[in-house]
Amino acid sequence: MWEESDNATNKVNNSMIKEPVKTQTQFLPFEELSWENFEQLCLKLAQEMSSLQDCERYGKQGSTQHGIDIFRIFDDGKYDTYQCKREKSFNVSDLDKAIEVFRKGDFFQTTKSFTICTSCELNATKLQDAFNRFKIELWSEGIELKKWDKIQLSHILKNHRKLVLEFFGVHWLNEFLGIDKLSPFYTMTDTQINEKLILASCELSIINNTFRNLPKSHIERKETIELFNWTSKSLEKDESNICVLAGNAGTGKTVILKDLFNKLIANKTPVIGFKADKTVLDTKNILGFETEIEKCI
């Protein structure tokens, strides 16, 4: 009788056993990168977050750089600028010097935002207080001061797994993100990606954008041009990356999107188009591999 009771107790306890908690590594070892690779990482991250064409390194080691290492230029001639510091430590005097050199440089008057990138943490109280004072001072002069320290960079790179693999390797890809390989999407050429996306967009691409029995009756809509221009420009600060085309049934929304799709394809812009009211999105079968697109819909 007692034995049965013990067995019952064991069964209950075993059913309540949980898997051990395993927290992913929270910070990447930026300090182990060479200064060239740390600067290159910051450049590629800035390019992915803005524009590949408008963001590049400024000068090279030993040349006069006016307190910056990377810049992004806007159509109005203004800049986002970045200074990279691969250092084991960074104190208040280092911050004072970085701001002083930047103030005296040629980019100070035309900079919108100035980002200090460091391989170490910038969370010491005195350093944070000094950073906040400079942030207020520069804001009054029309410049936003930002920091990409070890903490901020690690947080941002959670969404840039290809850069994690490129600069830190497979081990850190697994330790930091919990994956041991990237989706095949990251190893495909641009041409292969575009071919897959076009194939997945068949529901939209077959839409007829002319009047029935009138093959040359296509009407160019101003909304198509507006949407194309919007997708081609960089987002303004705090601007949403979601656009909604609204209108009553029969007003031509689908044709506008079909024309937009064609323009993006002609511009060699990667795009996927589908009619959500008619398509069950199966990216594994359509694209040939699993993606996380469904989570964005």
Name its key features.
297 residues; alpha/beta; Trna Endonuclease, Chain: A, domain 1; 2 domains; 5-stranded mixed β-sheet; 12 helices; globular
Q: Explain this structure to me?
A:
With 297 residues, the protein is an alpha/beta fold. It folds into two domains: 30-177, Trna Endonuclease, Chain: A, domain 1 (3-Layer(aba) Sandwich); 184-232 and 242-296, no CATH class. Helices cover 43% and strands 9% of the residues. It has helices spanning 2-15, 35-49, 92-104, 125-140, 150-157, 161-168, 170-177, 190-200, 202-205, 222-232, 253-266, 283-287; strands at 55-57, 70-73, 79-85, 111-118, 144-148. It has a five-stranded mixed beta sheet with strand order 1-2-3-4-5. α3 runs parallel beside α4 (125-140), α6 packs across α7 (170-177) and α10 crosses α11. The longest helix is centred in the middle third of the chain and has 16 residues, at 125-140.
